[in-house]
Amino acid sequence: MDTLDRLLAALRAHPEGPGTVLLTGWFSFIDGEATAGDLLARTAVAQALDAAGVPHDTAWSAGFAPGARTLDEAPPEAYRHVLFVCGPLHGPQVRELHRRYADCVRVAVNVSVIDADAPETTGFALVLARDGGTGPPRPDLAALAPAGPPPPLVALVLTQGQGEYGNRRGHTDVTTALTAWAGTKDCARLPVDTRLARDDWRLCASPEQFLALAARCDLVVTTRLHGLVLALRTGVPALAVDPVLGGGAKLSAQARALRWPALVPAEQVRPAVLDRWWEWCLTGRGRAAAGRRAARLARARRTGGGGRSAQLAG
Predict the structure, then answer these.
(1) CB atoms within 10 A of CB 89
(2) Each residue's pLDDT tens digit in the chain (314 positions)?
(3) How far is CA 74 from CA 23, 39, 58, 78, in A?
(4) How many Cβ atoms from other residues are within 10 Å of residue 240's Cβ?
(5) CA angle 229, 230, 231 (to 5 degrees)
(6) What span, in angstroms and rounded, lies between the C-alpha atoms of 74 and 311?
(7) How far apart are CA 226 and CA 124, in angstroms?
(8) Sign of the Cα pseudo-torsion (176, 179, 185, 186, in order)
(9) Which of 143, 156, 186, 247 is the most exposed place for a label (fewest CB within 10 A)?
């Protein structure tokens, strides 16, 4: 019997049935954390409860899901069972969960047992451990949980430098607006720098490493000249935002040289404008346009004509 079958059997064994079940985890604690694995494991449990016709609520940290139900809004008297899903059984947050829901049947699911004799562990009526328990390790539920289609992978290549532009620098305001907007988009965000280093593992150490990274993205959002150029070299659309006030500077010039339309001046960095170019870049038109630029740049490299911008028209 697998973990979810054992869980459902335990819920049905209650003399009055499971009632409404409360799902909790480290994602419920205001000073905890919500990881991708935690939320996938919660989804696996929720799906099993739905399939079995068991009603359930989830308690979320207000820091992670503002406006959603919190532990404070999940009164103990409303539940017969409280499930703690995923993560280690350790720490004062878990002990407080036992105290708050002392009159509920508490079950730990897909957890790591740190100390079998600790109150965090013994407070549960049933522990369905993924590791550290009495049985062999079990596959984590995150590996089995349903998930939707992956959103686009978007690299953000930004600069806060370029002091040479003096009072024309709009970099701070542009970066603030751009990152706030990017945080609202359904995408996997990847902060990237074109700066290379051999003594910092977070940075690429060669141009080829950066090109390999850019080529695996669906979109590059950038305020850097080379963020634009190297994205197009790999055939990846770039949403270029020129942070220099008063008509832009080298980034705008390079967009013109490459005949690339997805360019936003610093003065126009607004969600509506960014959204329009986001959609264009991620649709067939933007991808095809980037592919054409990449093909023409490749021909120019082969023929030694990299400086003839007329070859890039279209």
Answers:
(1) 25
(2) 599 999 999 999 988 888 999 999 999 999 888 999 999 999 999 999 999 999 999 999 999 999 999 999 999 999 999 999 999 999 999 999 999 999 999 999 999 999 999 999 999 999 999 999 888 999 999 998 999 999 999 999 998 877 787 788 889 999 999 999 999 999 999 999 999 999 999 999 999 999 999 999 999 999 999 999 999 999 999 999 999 999 888 999 999 999 999 999 999 999 999 999 999 999 999 999 999 999 999 999 998 865 544 445 44
(3) 10, 19, 9, 7
(4) 29
(5) 95
(6) 64
(7) 55
(8) negative
(9) 186
Helix ranges restricted to H, the chain: 3-12, 36-51, 92-100, 119-122, 171-182, 207-215, 225-233, 250-257, 271-282, 284-303
Residues with Cβ < 8 Å from 172, sequence gap 6 or more? 160
DSSP string, 26-70: GGG-TTS---HHHHHHHHHHHHHHHHTT--EEE---TTTSTTS--
Cβ burial, residue 313 (10 Å; 0-12/13-18/19+)? exposed
Tokens of 161: 């430098």
- Best CA proximity match to 248, nearest among 218, 230, 225: 225
Please say whether the beta carbons of 121 and 131 come within 8 A: no
Element (H or E) spanning 126, and its range?
A: strand 126-131
Q: 303: Cβ–Cβ under 8 A, 6 or more apart, which residues?
A: none
Cα-based angle 43, 45, 49 (whole degrees, multiple of 5): 115
Distance of CA 9 to the CA centre of its chain: 34
Separation CA 271–CA 289 (nearest Å): 23
- CB of 114 closer than 8 Å to CB of 143: no
Q: Residue 1: what pLDDT? A: 57
